[in-house]
Structures are given as C-alpha cells and as structure tokens.
Amino acid sequence: MEAERLERLKKTTYLHLAMEAKETLKKIEEDFPDRLEAMEYFYNLFHRVYTEGTPLKINRKTIGIMCMQVPEELIYATGAIPVRLCSGAHAFDQVGAEFMPSKSCPLMKATMGMLYIDHALYRESLDMVVIPTTCDQKRKAGEFLEEMGFNIYTLEIPPTKDTEEARYYWQNSVKRFALMLQETTGQRITRKRMREAIKRLNSARQQYRRLFHLRTSSPSLIYGKDTFVITNAYFFDEIEKWTEALRSLNDELERRKKEGLFTGNRSAPRLLLTGSPPVFPNLKLPLLIEEAGGLIVADEVCSSSRLLYDAPVFDEANLYDMIPAIADRYLKPCTCPSFVPNNDRKRRLLEIARKFGVDGVVYQAYSGCQLYEMEQRSIARTLMDEGIPMLYIETDYSPEDVGQLSTRIEAFIESIRSRRRRQ
User: Which of 296, 276, 300 is closest to 392 using CA atoms?
Assistant: First the structure.
C-alpha cells in the first residue's frame, strides 16, 4: 500500500513540477521584450529537463552537492561530475513538508521532497551526497537521507574564516574530502587531472567574469531573470556545453552594446538582489521585480554571482600547492552568513552597489532561513549609512503572496523614482 501511495504521489508531484516550470518559463520567455538569441540554449535546456522530463545522460560517477562550498575541482579531478541538488520547486516543497518541521526553510523542504519522492532513482544515480556544515538544516537533513540509503559525506567548514587556525582546519577538511572522493570513485587525484580540472572550471569562470562585467553597462544589456536562468543551468549542465553557450551569449551582448541595443527601459531603477538564493523554478521575486519595472543589474547570492567569480591562485602546479589554493578559493572570498564575523559580505555588497551604480537593494529571506533573517538588520544599517535604500522581503515557494509582494515591490520602485526626481 505504501509503495502504491508513493507512486501516485510521485506522478502527481512531477505533473505539478512540469506545470510550475512551464509557467515560469512562459513568463521568462514571453513577458519581456528584447529576447536574446543565445538564451535559447538555456531556455531549451530547462524545457527538456523540467517540462518534458528528459533525463540528463551522465556516464560517469556523480556526486550530489548541496552547497557552492564544495570544491568542484576535486570532483572533476577524480573523473566524476558534480550536480547541485538544491531545488526551487513548490511541488517538492509540499512533499518535504510531510516529514520536515513546518518552520523549515522551503529550499530544504523542496530538496528533501525531491530526493524522497524518487529516492530509488537518486540513490542509484548519486555515488555520494556532500553536505557542507554551512547550514544546520542541511547538516541535520543528512541523517534523514542516510536513513533513505544515501551515501552522505559531511564536509566540515569552520564557523569563521579570519584566523589562521580556521584556514588550517578547512584545508585539512578539504584534504580528507579528496581522500574520500578517491575511495568513492576509485580514481586517484593526480597532478595532471587536477590541472585539467582547474583549467576546465577556469574556462567557465572566465566566461562568467565576462558576463559579470557586461552587466555593469548602463543602460542594462540583460535582464536579471536571464542571469538566474544561466547560473541555475550551471547546477546540472555539462560544463563544456554551458561554457560554450555562455560564450555565445557574451559575444551577442558585446555586439548589442556596440550597436547601442539595450534591455528594458533605459531609466528603469537599477537594483541589486541579495539574501536567500533564487533556485529554478522559484524565480518568483526576480520576475516580480522586473515585471514591476525594475532591473536586477547585480546580485550577491550563492545561486549566481558567488558561484564562479574567483579562481584558485597557486605558485607551482603540484598537488601540494593546488589543493591548498583550491581550499583558499572556497573559503577566503566566501560571504556566506554562516561565518562570524561577516564583514566581508557588507564590504562586498557596497563594492557591487558602487560598481553597478545600483539605486536600491532587495533582500530576500526564505521563511525559516534563520541566517539570512538574522543578518538583514545589520545589512540594512550598512546600506542606510551609504544612502542606499533596501526592501526586505520574507517569503517562501508558495504563490499565495504574489499579490502582496507585487504591491510592496511596486511601491519600492516608485520610491526610488521619486527620490531620483527630487535629486
């Protein structure tokens, strides 16, 4: 009986997921002018995977990761493929709500619901699931997943990054992770494989840096909703195909810039989005912001600009230099609110705000995501001291608050326009 119930639930949930994804993609593709040709690759990818249910063909060991703090270079160096497991689906959120605490973060409920609804398939396809200790809910969720039969590895991250002791602790944690990857995949991490993995990721980072700098253009060259589609595709797409598709997009944006072609209203308020990460198909807030006449020209979230910007720096191309350099790359630039103190995040937000000429900041916090909820006050004070207005929004994956959020966002955008007129 339980197996039959689960099968019915699975069919219903995937039907709702397809409808949810289709609705999001329809808004992204049809509700905005100035559609970019190179975005078709990314739109089609999400159609295939989410609305048509076409599985990705991966013929190598697959490592599931639940955070951007997992060193992907080490995974690629063992011949395996990293796949980010974070879910933005309200359909999965409702499944996760059946066994997760009611006040859990919707991202965690959705991710757990996704892994539960089809756990036999995921157990078979994922050789290991890596959970960094950046989030208490993810860390404890690992126990649920172990009971479902998943091979869980907890990647220990220090609570601070400003001391030499923390750096030493993290480097040892990364080395232990490398040993576990070798044991899981049966492949040794050699100097040659590590260099190839770093080169592979650096090619992706190079193209992402191009996009990052192109986004500083005023008027804007690309909608924020499209940049979230691009970075969310990085979670699961083949990295070479993703890099080439992004290269084509960057080439198109550079051509449009030379031709004087820009996106949206030239006088639209330039906004920065920070806080809890938008994960497809939950692009509710970015879409509401840009439907209301704002433009998300920059962001500081772990599902976008924090993913790929920094590259590891080392003196000699040997394992003794490369592995510590990779560890440093994932620790030192990180602005995750799990670190205490977190002055780097405030500094980074101000740096981005100045570089991109933003008029205001929208701070998203998922209900139940205590780290982002607690940090919003200090961020608001920092921005206020610089004369930058901030709109704080607490929400979840449900569509029920769309009307209320729309009203608040429209009022915030109008306040920015009024401020401009007064100045």
Answer: 276
